[in-house]
Amino acid sequence: MTNFKDHKISLKYLLEFIPKALMSHLSATTNVDYYSKTLHGEKMFYLLLFSIYDNEKLSQRTLEDTFNSSGFKALFGLGEEEKIRRSSISERLSKIDSGYFKEIYEYMYEQFSSLYNKTEIEKYNLIRVDSTIVSEASSKMKEGIDQKNGKKLVKFSFSFDGILPSAVQVFNAQKYSSEEIALPEAILEQVKKEEHHDNIYIIDRGLQSTRAMKNFDQKAIKFIIRSKENRKFIETESFLDSDYIQKWEDWEVIKDSKVKLYTGNPIQNKRGKIHFREELVEKEFRLVVIKNEKLNK
């Protein structure tokens, strides 16, 4: 059996962690099999898992060949007479409730996380949050972020703890074209699931909203955001010691301060147009600026 790259884990061993009772329970509670006579949710899950495991690239043709192979049927107890066509797989994928797969993943993630004690899990409290966008022709997508150019977008926001994605959000409404809306929502959804957590969320420049930062702080969410270089602020206190230079390898801390940030407050004028008035937010944040001597930045 093929092993995951860099991980000596067989598919058979992996499947032992997925209880059959869970699959049966989810089939009943999610109604994933309501319209399906052949490609039940359980079969689709095993087909996708096996195909991802056994192939570098996926396609409907790959899924068809995998389902009809003797190896797949032997591993999952299917009869040799069972055959499936690519068109059937395509139709099933277009209608199956993705929440079924999400429920399986979240159950397995909870099981996996419970194996770590408090000291071990502290290594994975740095949660990296980022988004990626997939575009496709408008005719192929019922819903999506419309680009008015014949294509629609779907945004996927991932939270990664260093081992596995701890959360995945899918956005297809127009307002989520802005990371200022998508990323905070993705983070807040994960926080709801982990009421007593010590996570620190690491976010790139996609999120710059001072209002979002203030909201995080009010909810006791710890975060690190890579700020724009021209960010306007007022320094209220410096933590740097003039007699001691904080430095490691080629990096040097040139600012470590408590600051107040400016934000744009939306104002509607008499003509109904929105413009932004610059305002100082009273909440204080910590700003750290470091410089790489070799890169000169």
Major sheet, described briefly? 6 strands, mixed
Overall structural class, as computed from helix and strand content, comes to alpha+beta
Instruction: Indicate the overall shape.
Output: globular
How widely separated are the two ends? 48 Å
Summarize it.
This protein is an alpha+beta fold. It is 33% helix and 28% strand.
Helices and strands in order, then pairings?
Elements: H1 11-15, H2 20-29, H3 41-54, H4 60-67, H5 70-76, H6 86-95, H7 99-113, H8 118-121, E1 126-137, E2 145-146, E3 151-160, E4 165-171, H9 179-193, E5 200-203, H10 210-218, E6 222-225, E7 233-238, E8 247-248, E9 251-268, E10 274-292
Parallel strand pairs: 1-5, 5-6
Antiparallel strand pairs: 1-3, 2-3, 3-4, 7-9, 8-9, 9-10
Notes on the protein architecture:
With 297 residues, the chain is of the alpha+beta class. Helices cover 33% and strands 28% of the residues. Strands 1, 2, 3, 4, 5 and 6 form a six-stranded mixed beta sheet that branches. A hairpin with a 5-residue loop joins strand 9 (251-268) and strand 10 (274-292). Helix 4 (60-67) crosses helix 6. The longest helix is centred in the middle third of the chain and has 15 residues, at 99-113. The chain is globular. 14% of the residues are buried.
